[in-house]
Predict the 3D structure of the following.
Amino acid sequence: MSVSKKRIWGWMAFDWASQPFYTLGLTFIFGPYFAVVAAQYYLGSGLEESAANARAQWIWSAGQTVAGLLIAFSAPFLGAFADRSGRKMPWIAFFSVVYVVTTWMLWGLTPDGGSLILILIVFYIGFIAAESALNFVNAILPSLGNDREVGRISGSGAAFGYWGGVVSLFVMLLLLAENDQGVTLLGNAPLFGLDPDLREGTRAVGPFIAIWYVIFIIPFFLYVRDDRHAIRQSTNLRAVTGELIDTLRSVVKRKSLFNFLLGSMFYRDALNAVYAFGGVYAALVLEWQTMQIGVFGIIAAIAAAIVTWLGGLGDARYGPKPVITACVWVLIGVSVIIVGMSRQAMFGIPLPQGSPIPDLVFYFCGVCIGGAGGALYSASRSMMVRHTHPDRPAEAFGLFALTGKATAFLAPALITIFTIMTGSNQLGFLPIIFLFVIGLFLLRSVNKNGDRDAWSA
């Protein structure tokens, strides 16, 4: 295998290694478990059931808001510093250590909720580390090929990552995560003598994510290196800040980039909220147990892997903009369904008690969320490559992270406000629809070729 192919495979290994944090941690195992523990904790403190559920959703969204803001305002500086120094790998290594330590600590969330807030903080420190490392990894993407190759590589890498999510979710459900009867999907007790009454099988998701990362990140550090010719001996914060300010000023003058960053800010914020609250919604609205949510996650992850790969092929042939547009439309439709559905009714039409329709519809939503969300992520970073100055990729993806996280408070905050105002977990999702529509509108002014014509002139 050539050096360049090894580098591409090493780069793709990061997606495989880090995806379980999002699949198992954020969405399908730990997130719903946290929601249930939090709801029971607040129910025990004297709140009514609906108020307890709303409080559980509120503190989860508050954590996401704070973490998103910290990522948003640190990413451009870190990216500019990495570009100026020529070093990305030390940053990735540092955030990897933080990631492993914090994910291992998720074991500490016991069913009584005694460490609820501490574990919430630890989880989102891990989230910050995962996202920060990802920004530097994405900044390597422009060096892996030309526009057509980058679209395919981005799609293949993301799809590879989602398959990692599928495999890790299967392992958790078959061997570790227990249902209310204390058994796994195979009908056995969790491995290693873990106590189902203390939810130790489900809590093992934290150490599992950490071990998975340590094993599968090895190819990345073996085959991916900083460009030795770009490495500088030293730099300083003043110089970095000056260059970053100049870049921010220039963004306003670049119409296509400005509209892409602004539009993606809204639709990525909405997508992150769907990911973060999908499992919580299933647990609190549809009353799904960990096993049902896990099966939902497998379906969504398989759809994500397949559709993201197809999206990468579509990106290579037609460019990323049509892929992004189609995915946002699909996610708007899913959001409308989520708002209009409950265990008792569909868009106001009553359902018989015990009807399977809400479950079947939400499984379909899982396919759409996984597929459209994965392809949207891949095509968005491919579009960012088309707007990236060849000499400043980390700074560019720092700005990409800034706009992806600068309003990270917006969707969770709006969900919180609407949930409190309406007292409904379903109606709390209404703002997501508005954010997707705004992002779609701004996308109309984005040049499908980005700024490539300007860089080649």
